[in-house]
Design a protein that fits this description.
seven-stranded mixed beta sheet, binds nicotinamide-adenine-dinucleotide, 21% strand, Aldehyde Dehydrogenase, Chain A, domain 1, alpha/beta
């Protein structure tokens, strides 16, 4: 049997797949269909039906019905369900990792790392399920006490991007689940099979725990389904991961019904290399950041600021390293750069290279597309300037813009911050004062600031997200769980008088 067919069988994927999962093991086919394409070969892997407006509407209604039962289950018991999902993910890590590679073109190690990230966040969520803590606060009134309580929010819609087709759902779904929320997922149309495989893993675990409708799924290649989720006031939180262009629309739609949304949008991340930097750390970090996942990570390194003292050496060594990058089949162990997701992405790459050239940029390496099948491009280094429009926007491709050399770190930090996005940033230095400047309030304006490591990739233990056009959301670790719950300030009077705050006095009028 063909290896892909056997993999699909083990993950419950057929040649033609249903589009709507209710979270109780049952599916409905949807309407019409579309293909999931392997971007390395340009060939269809399987087809999936399309959830329409009514399908999604029904799913949201079911989620609302499922919420009170799940909400009332004690949080540590909710954690036990997520613990069993973590075990299933450990068991299926290799095959799920391979499916991610087939569907979105990640390297095998990257596909497996993505499943590991799901396992890590599941483990985190299990521990968290025993730790939802609120504050106790002193009251200004005698014989009163104040506390903060955190209650489940309700139904959480999750819209995910293609480039982390599994982990982003897990970041949201596992934290939301232990918080007592139920989750409706609309995955990227580039990665429907990954979503189906995950649903097939979690459904039997939910059923074994006597839970239905906790995790449901609506697949479609019609952007109207994402817009529908954003517009539906029955959702208590919408978590959106994707481009700033779409994220801005989603935020406006959610705001119109006073909903909550959590935005994880585009990045335009920079590495600064100081005069004192250890280049043996900086060079691999820059290279991995720029070409890892073919430049299709929100945290990919896109801009490079080099001190005059090391500029020429770093550029020379990077250019030499680029010449040895192997581009090709992401499942081959010696491949370092896989394909872009589709022809549109290749078009955006071509447009960006042309835009940089027209602005006066010098291509130091690459700049061309590679012949098919598949959507391959050359990893590309371009000498550029930060203010150029092409540098100011995120192009989801392996293009690294190298800025003119800087003299003063403060100038490099200013220019690093001078883009619309604010996700990830990194400084390489051995100078303690420079490191502290970078991390200070006047330093990097990004949600993530690293010293002596690159911009790309993050541990799940920290809160992940960025500022400005990146959207301001925080997911994963730290206290990111608070976005999935509603805060209640509770005051209890255990005395026999009714003192008011701010020394106000009020007595019933005599009668
Ligand atoms: P995209 O914006 O094209 O699509 C993201 C999701 O939104 C998809 O599921 C898509 O179907 C859906 N969508 C499309 N139109 C919609 C609409 N009008 N309303 C609601 N939903 C709609 O993004 P993409 O190409 O899949 O992913 C790449 C982008 O995601 C990059 O900009 C990257 O930086 C960003 N990203 C950010 C993070 C982060 O954590 N900050 C993580 C991963 C990816």
């Amino acid at each position: 049997m063909d290896a892909a067919v056997s993999l699909f069988n083990r993950l419950g994927i057929a040649e033609a797949n249903a589009a709507v999962a209710r979270g109780d093991g049952s599916w409905t086919r949807g309407h019409g269909g579309f293909a999931s394409i392997n971007p390395a070969l340009g060939q269809p892997l399987a087809t999936v039906g399309r959830a329409d407006r009514d399908d999604l509407d029904e799913l949201i209604g079911r989620a609302r019905q499922a919420f009170p039962t799940w909400r009332d289950r004690p949080a540590p018991q909710r954690g036990l369900l997520v613990r069993d999902i973590a075990e299933a993910l450990r068991e299926h890590k290799d095959e799920l990792g391979t499916l991610i590679c087939l569907e979105v073109g990640k390297l095998k190690a990257e596909g497996n790392a993505e499943v590991q990230e799901m396992i890590d966040i599941a483990d985190f969520a299990v521990g968290l399920s025993r730790q939802f803590h609120g504050l106790t606060l002193p009251s200004e009134r005698p014989q009163h006490r104040m506390e903060e309580r955190w209650h489940p929010r309700g139904v959480v819609g999750v819209i995910t991007a293609f480039n982390f087709p599994a982990a982003v759902w897990a970041w949201n779904a596992f934290i939301a689940a232990v918080c007592g929320d139920v989750v409706v997922w609309k995955p990227s149309p580039h990665a429907p099979l990954t979503a189906i495989a995950i649903q097939n893993l979690v459904d039997p675990i939910c059923v074994a725990h006597g839970v239905t409708g906790l995790f449901s799924l609506a697949i479609s290649d019609d952007p109207a389904r994402g817009a529908q989720l954003a517009a539906d006031p029955r959702l208590d939180l919408l978590s959106f991961t994707g481009s700033s262009r779409v994220g801005g629309q989603v935020a406006a739609t959610v705001a119109a019904h006073y909903g909550h949304c959590l935005l994880e949008c585009s990045g335009n991340n920079a590495v600064i290399v100081d005069a004192s930097a250890d280049l043996e750390l900086a060079l691999p970090a820059i290279l991995f950041g720029a070409i890892g996942t073919a430049g299709q990570r929100c945290t990919s390194t896109r801009r490079l600021f080099l001190h005059r003292a090391c500029h020429d050496e770093v550029v020379a060594r990077l250019t030499a390293a680029y010449a040895h990058l192997r581009v090709g089949d992401p499942l081959q162990p010696d491949t370092l750069v896989g394909p872009l997701i589709d022809e549109a992405a290749r078009g955006a790459f071509v447009a960006a290279v042309a835009g940089a050239r027209n602005a006066g940029g010098r291509v130091l390496h690459g700049g061309r597309t590679l012949p098919g099948p598949g959507c391959f491009v050359e990893p590309t280094l371009i000498a550029a300037e930060n203010r150029w429009p092409v540098v100011q926007r995120e192009t989801f491709a392996p293009i690294l813009y190298v800025m003119p050399p800087f003299e003063d770190l403060a100038d490099a930090i200013r220019d690093q911050n001078d883009v619309p996005q604010g996700l990830s940033s990194a400084l390489f230095t051995r100078d303690l004062r420079h490191a502290e400047l970078f991390l200070a309030a006047a330093g990097s304006d990004c949600g993530i600031a690293n010293v002596n490591l690159g911009t790309s990739g993050a541990e799940i233990g920290g809160a992940f997200g960025g500022e400005k056009a990146t959207g301001g959301g925080r997911e994963a670790g730290s206290d990111a769980w608070k976005a999935y719950m509603r805060r209640q300030t509770c005051t209890v009077n255990w005395g026999d008088t009714l003192p008011l705050a701010q020394n106000l006095h009020f007595d019933l009028p005599p009668h």
